[in-house]
Amino acid sequence: MGPLYKYAFILFLFCLPVLTTAQEDETPAPAAAEEAPPAPKRYYVFSPRVSVTVPHPMANPSFKKSFVGIYEASAGLNFYLYKGIFIGGMYKNGLLKITENKIADYNASMSINNIGGKIGTDVYIGEKNRVIYSASLTVGRNWTRYSGLVAKDPKRIIPDSYTTTYYEPEMNIFFLIESNFGIGATLSYSVFKKNFDPYELALNDWTQFSKNNSGSTQYLSFGFGFYYSLWKKNTPKRSGY
Questions:
Q1: Which domains, ranges and CATH numbers included, belong to the chain?
Q2: What is the pLDDT of residue 234?
Q3: Cα dihedral sign for 18, 20, 26, 32?
Q4: Would the pTM of this model clear 0.85, i.e. be above it?
């Protein structure tokens, strides 16, 4: 994914509340008797979250040159604290591969498993209270395993796994279908405390890399998210907190 698309998507998420409000303002107002009142702001004790995204290698040129994202799926549970602030836990599984357009005649994969704790906030946006903006930061543990790595020297030992820490900021926009259920867009950025080094993995046997390209393993993920909540926390409020 090129930088232009990445920044356009991020800009879209930040501008969406403004665009939504503008669209509401331009729509002719119906008769007062038919106008639906704003939905009440509701907060729930528990909120399961699920997302399906595609990872895109970033930052490290060697990582970008070698792997392409296939999928990433996550599931978690948030616990409401106060006025939209929550803590929670999550599990994420992902897969990246070396495809033909990356390294010819080479087939290898990188499997990712993450477990972490998060803190974040849910904020209603728009006058109708039918859109939720959610932002969070996750910190946790990563387990990465490689398969299919091959060196030209059969005696060479290539590391096939590692464990490290990671952190991940995430943003979501959920469009509510019901007060406790919504679907929307998810954007996250994962940073591992582990350098991706193609020489360590013997990838330089099959293509050329710059020795200066070793750097932190990072990737951007975007896709769809699903919001669900259980056990209503407070009395509905139609304006303010």
A1: 40-232 (2.40.160.20)
A2: 58
A3: negative
A4: no
